[in-house]
Amino acid sequence: APVAEARAHAPAAPIDDIRVVLLGFDEAAAANARALLAGAGIAAVERAGEAGAEAAVRAAAAGGAAAVALVLAHDPVNGLRLVERLAALRPGRAGIVVAAARSMLSTIRQAQGSGAGAVATLPLRPRPLWRAIAIAAGRLGVAPDSSAEGDPGWEPPAVHQKYKKMVTFTDRGPMIKEL
Known about the structure:
By secondary structure, the chain is of the alpha/beta class. The chain has five helices and seven strands, in the order βαβαβαβαβαββ. The protein has helices at residues 27-38, 53-60, 76-89, 105-113, 126-136; strands spanning 19-23, 45-48, 67-72, 95-101, 118-122, 165-170, 173-178. The longest helix has 14 residues, at 76-89. It starts with 18 loop residues before the first strand and ends with a strand.
């Protein structure tokens, strides 16, 4: 069987020594994030609740270790408050990555203005997540919007933009109508 070249699936920058603190993740989402992070060689992963967020990030960054807080922002208000609290704390070399749905574009922009070093869009995928962590840790000098690999400046279409085609689904299959 052919073996995939490991370098093709490696992070863009070395991140295997970074300690990651998962904030706002339930157990299932944390298990998924741990598996994605393990693919980049990151083994030091801790999950903490909002109440213990600052202490967990401080502990991860103790002794000058590189650390990143990965904040799952399902709730934009509480997610942004947590990002602001962590940004004000700034222990050691800790960076902040916000994981949010693309539909929460205003939250993504606010997170970047509140101190998040990068954004990873949901659902989390390995290479964009690794890239966001590398950016937040200061290991990649790329614009902070890492919403999708190869698509760093994604913006939704303007509301007033007219579309050239419309697709409707009928019992005979999809029907495409030129506008």
